[in-house]
Specification:
15% strand; 5-stranded parallel beta sheet; alpha/beta; 5 strands
Length: 207
């Protein structure tokens, strides 16, 4: 390769690294390190399973009156209401009126689809999204794409481990953040390239 070719290659690599660093910094800027209440009432809330304290925090929001109804999406098919009550007994008085379980979602894309059906069925116009802080950017992107006409409010769940040390000082946390960043970028690309919807979403009966 000629000297000019090597120079252009070096410039291209430097530009690519710069873009990746800028993108990663923007992703980190979306991760909150404190739990902040929405500040206003919402028609509904959705808790995405898969992380510590997500369900219990969502139930607390419901009990406080911050939302009228709660969907727990991505529930393991082997988990029953009784099983959930053993882990979150404070939900006992709310299950009969205000909590629905979604068993179909296996990932964040599925969470968004399951949430969309539940929102349309229950005529919800404002929604609190409850998930881990590192997962919130991707969750909002997927749910926001599925529900562009619904007002979304984020409630990021922050664990004691998250508060005790910065993510870069812990190998496990660093792997989690980097993995989530890659998934977030892939999600953004997929959503931007996806064709527009041609049919309105179908309603289903909430469980």
């Amino acid at each position: 390769m000629s000297r000019a070719g090597r120079a252009w290659l070096g410039l291209g690599l430097a530009a690519a690294i710069g873009i990746m660093a800028w993108s990663f910094d923007g992703f980190l800027g979306q991760i909150d390190d404190v739990e902040a209440l929405p500040g206003r009432h919402a028609d509904g809330a959705v808790a995405l399973t898969g992380g510590a304290d997500r369900i219990s925090d969502a139930v607390e929001l419901l009990a406080r009156g911050d939302a009228d109804r709660l969907l727990i999406t991505g529930v393991n098919p082997l988990t029953s209401r009784a099983g959930l009550l053993r882990t979150i007994p404070q939900a006992r008085r709310l299950f009969g009126c205000c909590i629905d379980l979604g068993y179909e979602a296996a990932n964040t894309i599925g969470n968004a689809s399951e949430t969309e059906r539940w929102v349309r069925t229950n005529h919800i116009r404002s929604l609190i999204v409850v998930t881990s802080n590192y997962h919130m950017p991707r969750a909002l992107a997927e749910i926001g794409s599925a529900l562009p006409d619904v007002d979304l409010m984020a409630y990021p769940v922050v664990t004691e481990r998250d508060r005790s040390r910065p993510w870069w000082s812990d190998a496990g946390a660093a792997r989690l953040i980097l993995s989530e960043y890659v998934k977030y970028v892939a999600s953004q690309l997929r959503l931007r390239l996806a064709p527009p919807r041609s049919e309105p979403p179908q309603e289903v009966t909430a469980r």
